[in-house]
Structure formats: C-alpha cells, structure tokens
Amino acid sequence: MVIVLAIFAAVPLANFIATGTSRTLFLSRSNDADWFATMAEGPLQSGDIANLRELAVRYHQLYNTPVFVVDVDRRVIATSRSGVVVAEPDLKTALDSTLAGRLPTEPPALWPWRTGEMVVARPVVNNGRVLGAAVLRVPTEHARDDVQRGLLLLLGGLLISVGAVVIGIVRPVTRWVLRPLNDLDNATHQVTRGALDTRVSTDGRAPELRRLGDSFNSMALSLHQARQREREFVADASHQLRTPLTSARIHIEGLSRLSPTARFALSDIDRLGRIVQRLSRLAGSDRPGDAEGSEEPLDLAQAVKERLVGWKAVYAADDLELIIGEMVPGGVAPELEVDDILDVLLDNASKYGAPPVEVSVLRDGTEVVLAVRDHGLGLGSRDLKKVGERFWRSAHHREMPGTGLGLAIVRSEAARVGGRVVARPPIGGGLVIEVRVPLIDDYEL
User: Fold this and answer.
1) What is the CATH number of domain 2-168?
2) pTM of the prediction?
3) What is the pLDDT of residue 274?
C-alpha cells in the first residue's frame, strides 16, 4: 500500500518537475521575445533593419538561441541565421496564433525522451495593430537534462525512504494547495492598489487552479492594456495640440503689439499650453517635477481673489450669484496652478451645481484649503468616492457637455505639490470640493 501511495505521489511530482522547468524556460525567454518585439516596432515601420539584425546575431551568439523577426506577411525581415522556413509546423502554429493577436499557448512538458526546440513568439504591435512577430527557437537540451536529474533524484528519494516520503508529503501538498490561493489573494490586493502589471505564477499547480491563475493573468493584462490605451490617448491628444498652439501663439504675438484684445488672447493661448503640459503629466508621459517656478511661496488667498475678478463678471453675465467667502492668507508651493484649478471648480459649479456658489480659502492645521461650494443636487456616497477619476462623470450629468478630465487634472495638480482633493456634502445640501495643499510654515503674512 505504501508503495502504491508513493507511486501516486511520484506522478504529480514528476509532472511538476517537467512542467515547471518548461514554464520557467518559456517565461525567461518570453521576456527576451517581448524585448525583441519592442525593438522591432520601429524597424518594421521604417525599413531600417541593420541594427535589428545585429542585435539578433549578438543574442544568438550569447545565448545560443536563434532569433528572427517576420512582418505581418510572414516575410523574414531580420534573422540571426539563414535557412529559416516559416512553413515548418511548429513555426506555422506559433505564427498563426501570434499574428492573430492571441495569447501564447502553454508549452508542453520537457520530458527527457522528447527532442526539438521550444518556439517562443511575441507580436510586434503599434497602436493596437499587429506589424509582425519576433520569434525565438530555444534549445531545450539543458532543460531536459535538468528534468532528468530531477526525476532521478525523485526516484532515488522514493527508493531510499518510501515511508518518509508518504509521511512528509502531507505538509508539502497542503502548502502546494494553499500557496496558489495565497498568491492569488496577494495579487488581487496589488491590482486593487493600481499595480496592474501584477501576475500570478501557474507553475506545477492543479489544472483548476492553473486555469484560475491564467484567467486572473488575462484579466490583469486586459486592465493593464486598457490603462495603457487610456494614457496613450491623452498623451497623443496633448502632443497633437502642441503644434497648432505654438503656431497660433506666433501669429497672435505679432498682433499683440497693435491690439489689447490680442494680448488677452495671447494669455489664453499660454494657459492652453500649460493645460496641454498637464495633460501630458496626467498621462505619465512627462516626468513630475519638471515644472519651473520661483522659490517664493504663493499666497493662495491672494491668487484666488485675483482670479475671481474675471469670474465675477462671467457669473454676472449668466445671472449666477458668486459669493466670496473668508480669505485667510496662507503660503503654498509656487508651482501650484491656482488659475486652472479655480477655473475647473467654478466651471463645474456653474454647469452641474446651482447658485449661489461660494469660494473660500481657509487654514486647517498644516493645510491650506481652497473650497468651492454650490447648492445643487450634490452627489451620492458612491459618486463622492469616484470624484477625480479620469473620464468619470456622474450618472446625472452624462448628457451634459464635458470630458470627465477636469477634476482629474485638479487632483493631479494638487498631488504634484503634495496635496489632495476632497469632495463632501455640506450641511444644507449641495456639494463642496476642497483642494487641500500643504501650508509652507515659513510664509510671512
């Protein structure tokens, strides 16, 4: 009976060794294939493949692994060795899946009696369009030797102490069963915190748990790609706006010497340019901390009062009441874009709220608080938690014009100086949006 139990225990362990070694090799070479796919994006579009071919040759010499790149029509563009036949069954299968944009299939277990190379292929993608594929033909001799040594050690352990294996298998199996669940739980928490590149390993696990892990990885990949597409959209939009803004500024700058109105237009063009820069930062395309400014603190109350001069006229033209509340002086970081923050908050209050709209600047401990309150319908508890998310809009306001980026930009600007945005329902109804930024202690009133 003990021998039978040992045999039954040895089968999954042997499969663990073979499949684990296979997946480890596959994942390690997948990273290299992803790198080649990234490097091949430019050459496939420009046609300049000399550097790509040199990289493939060097990689082949270093790792003894042939590599080649094909375009979407399966023509070999760059290769580390001649004689590549893409019609070979293993290559054809890999290219069919890769060029169709499907996820790679699980590699077969590397048993010692099997021969042949492992094919690792990754698509070359630009803006969601498949341009070709990078393919590695990975030798498996060393990996099969490792599997053979592992199987021999396993067999030797069973022959030396069958009883010890049976007794000692209870704890490892328990860990083996619970570890994937713990890993999946930890990975889920990482994704909820925004780490969308988190993945779970599926090496050597039960088929049900392996499928669960694969499903989680596919979900995380989809979320990561969606976030990446969102950032690319914002970055591309801001990039496309820069050229016409620069051209418009040049033309209006020439008119500004003749017309005071043109000078106001020039100021608005400059503000649009700053908005485009913040869109780039919001998309993650610009590094934080690049903004330049004076080292003197900014009096938030004074900056708000100056900006409110123009907004009082705007509100009066629309028969809306704008109340200037308490204005307590307080020094904040000079790079804080007060005008743009106040523009977003007052524009939202006039469109989505109801008069009167009250603006105040207060101190709260170590923070200076810019608060804008309206007397509209306000937001529910669920919606209050989502204020400041990119492209989010309340269900009551989705039919109204807007992009859903205004408060996201405000939150990004506040965070850039160590601040935060708080939305809360005030007593009496409506909505209060507070921009809380750190108080500079040595600011002199």
Assistant:
1) 3.30.450.20
2) 0.39
3) 67
